[in-house]
TrEMBL record:
It holds the Pfam family Orn_Arg_deC_N. It comes from Adonisia turfae CCMR0081. This is Diaminopimelate decarboxylase. Its cofactor is pyridoxal 5'-phosphate. The gene is lysA. The modification N6-(pyridoxal phosphate)lysine is found at residue 96.
Length: 463
């Protein structure tokens, strides 16, 4: 027998309380994956798998990815665009959120295209079976080699700046032209962390609007380039809908300007950016509500300009995979500073989740092996790395902990694995995909041997 909510007579707060705020059908609005339950052992269960058992089998830290949640988010995006956009639409997974073979394969099975931002991400997507026709190659400083790989693969290349544009025009040829989109900075600001604002004028990304006439003129003269679209992205972890209303009108205006230069523009890419719930106070729009605003405002902008509907593209990343994953840790040492703070250390930290130290990101934590135990302690969950700032959660509410307890941090699917490092020469964690009580290893845990694989010791330093 499993339960998903506290019993009616329970009055003491416990980790079960987090399941109470987990009722939305939209995965990005949930704190936990769709499949979470609590089993008879009082353990957290994801995808029908006991988190404690997963740690015993695969070790910790451990990324646990719920396949149902990821697929559901993909389906909700596709269904919403089918419902609200009368023209052709394409949903694309922004794979920088988590690029690995299994995730790319799931995205393409669900009918999504894939957005990559490096040669390595391109290789991964191709190896996972993504059709080059559904690959879009982003990035603000793609190398000569990466641009050539994009041409050879036959994917669309999103050109970010003059250097890329001129390099690409020289690499491609009239016989094997490069199919491109132009990334433009829309000048629309969102109230998010400065480091994830990518759409305002002061941004490293994209051509500035005052360059467009010159850019369009140049591209129209290049027989080696076929410009089929325009791209803009206004930021990430966005809870506002108004900026997306504004973006459609801006893109349609630019599309008409490009067509006046003879460019065969047929695709408009509005980027992504929809936020997710990291804590119970976060309140992002649902996937469907976001898609409806994007679609209806693109239709409105085209009607007002009296132009045909373009192929409408969006690029969700975080809102597809962020809440599909939890990270499990094992508690180790603890320390109490009288009158100040109690610390509990886990066997990971900034090397598997750099977002708290980088962005001051907030998370919640559950006691995975004692879900109904009272949250009687205020504990700062510290990482194991030699950095004072290596703290995953300040002042977390947890039960009394002992060494060996398992805790789980939700909403760790986006950018945690992608940004993981070997700081302090700590091996990166394993990742498992869970569904229907089965766990499949999708990323092996690094070994100590992996850590020194590329080290070289000059002969004169050998003892």
């Amino acid at each position: 027998m499993v339960s998903t909510l506290p019993s009616a007579n329970q009055t003491t707060r416990s980790s079960l309380d987090y399941l109470e705020t987990n009722g939305s059908d939209s995965p990005n609005q949930r704190l936990l994956p769709l499949s979470v339950q609590v089993n008879e052992q009082d353990h957290l269960q994801v995808g029908g798998c006991d988190v404690v058992d997963l740690v015993k089998e695969f070790g910790s830290p451990l990324y646990i990815l719920d396949e149902v949640t990821l697929r559901t988010a993909c389906q909700q995006y596709r269904q919403a665009f089918d419902q609200y956009y009368p023209g052709e639409a394409l949903v694309m997974y922004a794979s920088k959120a988590w690029n690995c073979l299994a995730v790319c394969a799931i995205a393409t099975q669900e009918g999504l295209a894939v957005d990559v931002v490096s040669g390595g991400e391109l290789l991964t997507a191709l190896t996972a079976g993504v059709n080059p026709d559904k690959l879009y190659f982003h990035g603000n400083n793609k190398s000569h080699g990466e641009l050539q790989r994009g041409i050879d693969a036959g994917c669309r290349i999103v050109v970010d700046n003059w250097h890329e544009l001129k390099t690409l025009s020289a690499l491609a040829s009239p016989q094997t032209p490069a199919t491109i989109l132009l990334r433009i900075t829309p000048g629309i600001e969102c109230h998010t962390h400065d480091y994830i604002r990518t759409g305002h004028i002061d941004s490293k990304f994209g051509f500035d609007p005052d360059q467009l006439e010159e850019v369009f003129t140049f591209v129209a003269q290049q027989s080696s380039l076929v410009c089929v679209g325009l791209h803009a992205h206004i930021g990430s972890q966005i809870f506002e809908l108004q900026p997306h209303e504004d973006l459609s009108a801006v893109l349609v205006t630019w599309m008409e300007a490009a067509k006046r230069h003879g460019l065969p523009i047929s695709e408009l890419d509005v980027g992504g950016g929809l936020g997710i719930r990291y804590t119970e106070t976060d309140d992002p729009p649902s996937i469907t509500d976001w898609a409806q605003v994007v679609c209806e405002n693109m239709v409105k902008a085209c009607q007002e300009a009296n132009v045909a509907l373009p192929k409408l593209i969006c690029e969700p990343g975080r809102s597809l995979i962020g809440t599909a994953c939890i990270t499990a840790y094992t508690i180790g040492g603890q320390k109490t500073v009288p009158g100040i703070r109690a610390y509990a250390a886990v066997d990971g930290g900034m090397s598997d989740n750099p977002r708290p130290i980088t962005y001051q990101s907030l998370y919640r934590v559950l006691a995975a092996n004692k879900m109904s135990a009272p949250l009687s302690e205020t504990v700062t969950l510290a990482g194991k790395h030699c950095e004072s700032g290596d703290v995953l959660i300040h002042d977390a509410q947890l039960p009394v902990l002992v060494a060996g307890d398992i805790v789980a941090i939700p909403a760790t699917g986006a950018y945690n694995y992608s940004m993981a490092s070997n700081y302090n020469r700590v091996p990166r964690p394993a990742a498992v995909l869970v569904k229907n009580g089965e766990a499949s290893l999708i990323v092996e845990r690094e070994t100590d041997a992996d850590l020194i694989r590329y080290d070289r010791l000059p002969s004169y330093l050998r003892s």
